[in-house]
Structures are given as structure tokens and as C-alpha cells.
Amino acid sequence: xxxxxxxxxxxxxxxxxxxxxxxxxxxxxxxxxxxxxxxxxxxxxxxxxxxxxxxxxxxxxxxxxxxxxxxxxxxxxxxxxxxxxxxxxxxxxxxxxxxxxxxxxxxxxxxxxxxxxxxxxxxxxxxxxxxxxxxxxxxxxxxxxxxxxxxxxxxxxxxxxxxxxxxxxxxxxxxxxxxxxxxxxxxxxxxxxxxxxxxxxxxxxxxxxxxxxxxxxxxxxxxxxxxxxxxxxxxxxxxxxxxxxxxxxxxxxxxxxxxxxxxxxxxxxxxxxxxxxxxxxxxxxxxxxxxxxxxxxxxxxxxxxxxxxxxxxxxxxxxxxxxxxxxxxxxxxxxxxxxxxxxxxxxxxxxxxxxxxxxxxxxxxxxxxxxxxxxxxxxxxxxxxxxxxxxxxxxxxxxxxxxxxxxxxxxxxxxxxxxxxxxxxxxxxxxxxx
Length: 434
What we know:
Distance between the termini: 17 Å
CATH class of the largest domain: Alpha Beta
CATH architecture of the largest domain: Alpha-beta prism
CATH topology of the largest domain: UDP-n-acetylglucosamine1-carboxyvinyl-transferase, Chain
Number of strands: 24
Radius of gyration: 22 Å
CATH superfamily of the largest domain: Enolpyruvate transferase domain
Largest sheet: 4 strands, mixed
Number of domains: 2
Helix content: 25-40%
Strand content: 25-35%
Structural class: alpha/beta
Number of helices: 15
Strand order of the largest sheet: 22-23-1-24
């Protein structure tokens, strides 16, 4: 069996302009929301070509939908013939976002069977908040043999308070409530930009939703969502942040186009604290200029509009070469510092104490073989390789390919010395030499 890795020669600045792709985390939930449509084809533009998108497409196909790309980033979904209510275990366990079909399936079919989710190993992400919300709307829910089995005659609007502003729970409950009888009001909801993107998409389908972006969302149930939809997915704020930090670390200058500038406030503020120059050109364009020295600063991850947990590994990579000692406290996921050991192999001075990583910046890093431990960790290790002396090899690219489209090609177009190679296992090499 062959596997792939990235080979990076450090020391080259990122220069030029990059057009950002659609947001993976938004595209996936919009695809799940298409289950609610019974009468029209749905067209999604600006959909990134990622492994996770292919998994969600397979989930929808397993339910009876027709899904295909009509061009590079335009996805057509025909949900009219969905006639199954069970999402296959082998697909759902590949990716946590597959669990988002639970609410739409229950609302459409009156029954849903979905395996408990998988995904990156960044800590326990319980689905009890999802289930309690659906139960409040009248669903009967059981967990059998690793599957969530939900049944209802008709969902009924309810007052729902989330114990934590979970993005996934907010989205699942929102989608289910669109076809519930009466009004649903959800308190302490997630305020991430992807929530607003979902609300705008559902409204185009015919849903009645107010309050997205605030901490209270109100949904007035309708009989059906019947309007045809042609919708463009929002740009990816995490991809934007990854390129921004890449420019800062390599002391390059990058112009980001199609950037979701309004959703980057917390990251921009922290990068400016770290002595990075950021010019906001307009609502969709910004320019990042790295300079010496990068200054150590302190970060605490929080739900939006706080500093995003999906950016903390990349920020840690930048702090590894900063002047001074920084700290990063993770409050969202408890197992998100697995990259620390890998960065230490490259000479980073990182010490993890409970929920906090203490990082003492060093003047130089050295290339080494490392492996991605989750999606954002893999991206952070690539960024670290861009500034390390010598050659860095990054393996476990499965994680990276879940969230970044053509990442190495885009970095190479900006001046990085990076390529993907296919590597044979030792057993295969021995056979080929025999």
C-alpha cells in the first residue's frame, strides 16, 4: 500500500494573492439541509473539493438523493427521491458532520437512524445537546448498538435552552424546527458565521428564521420547503486564517481575496498584537505583511466571536518562533494539543499544562519527519515546515485533505518549496527489491 507525504524546504516567503475557497464547515451543513427539500433541485456554488464533501455526498446518495458536481466547485443536489431514513455507519463514523442529517431526516421522514459520529480525535464531542433539543420538540430517541434512533409523528415547536452554544446542536435543531408545527425559540445558540449562512440558505428554501448571529434564534415552522435554491457558500474563515499566519511566519506579503473579513475580527486583533501588519482593503479583501520580530501574545479559545479553536494550532506554530513566551488556553476541546509533540521534534519549546500550552519562542526551527494528528494540527505542521531550516516531511495527509483543497499546490504558487510524494511501505520496497 502506498501513502503520501508532503516534502517542504523551509526558508521561502509566501508572496502574492490567494482567492479563498468556500467554507467546508458551512458547505457540509448546507448539504445536510438539502434533505429538507422535497420539490426542487438545489445548486450550491463555491463548494470546496474535499474528502469531507465527498463523504457527505455519499451520505446523501445513500438516502436516495442524486448528488454531483456540474463544474469544479458547483454542486447539484436532487433530494426529491429521498426515501431512506438510515445513514450508514461506515460513512457517518468517517466524519462528524454526517450527524447533521439527523434533524432534517427526522423532520422530513418522521424517523431517523444515524450512527454516533466520528471525525478528528480532538476530544469528546457529545451529541446530548442535539438530542435534548429534538426531544423537546417531541421526538422519541433511543441509542442502540451505537446508533441514534429518533421517531416522531410530528415535531412541535418548543422553547429550547442549550447548555453550551454548540454549533452542531444549533444547526441540527434549526433544521428540524423548520418543519415543526408552531414556533421554536432556541436560547444560548452558537453565533458562528456558519450559523448565519445556514439560516440564509434555509430562508431561501422558504423557512422563517430570525435572530441568526445573535444568542436567540426563532423559527416559525412551515408545512414544506419548496422554493428552488441557487446559493453560494460563504468563504472559509479558517482557511483565510491559515494563509494569514503563513504570511506572517514566513515574513511574506499576501493579499487575500474573497475573504470573510467580518468574521476574522478576533484573529486579526491577536495577529496585530503579535506585530503582524494587516490592512483591510474592503469587506472581502485584506493584506497581511509579516515582519520581524513576531511578538509573543496570549490566546484563549472561545465560541464565536471569541478566538476560534480551529485556529489555535496554527497560532501555536507562529508563537513557536515569536519573541518571548506565550500561552494558548483551549476551552472548547480538551484534546487539541496533540501537535505539541510533533512541533517539539522540530525544535519548538512547548509545554502543555492541562488546558494550556506554554510556548517559549525559539530563533530557529529545524526540519524533521512529523505527522498530522488532526485537521488543523496537520495544517499547523505544514506552516512550521515553511520556516524550519532544511527539509520537513509531513505524513498522515488524510487529515489535511479533509479541510484544505489543493493546499500544497496553492502554497507552491505563492513561493513555497513544497510537493506531495507517494511513498511505498518498507514491506513493499522489500518485495520490489526481491
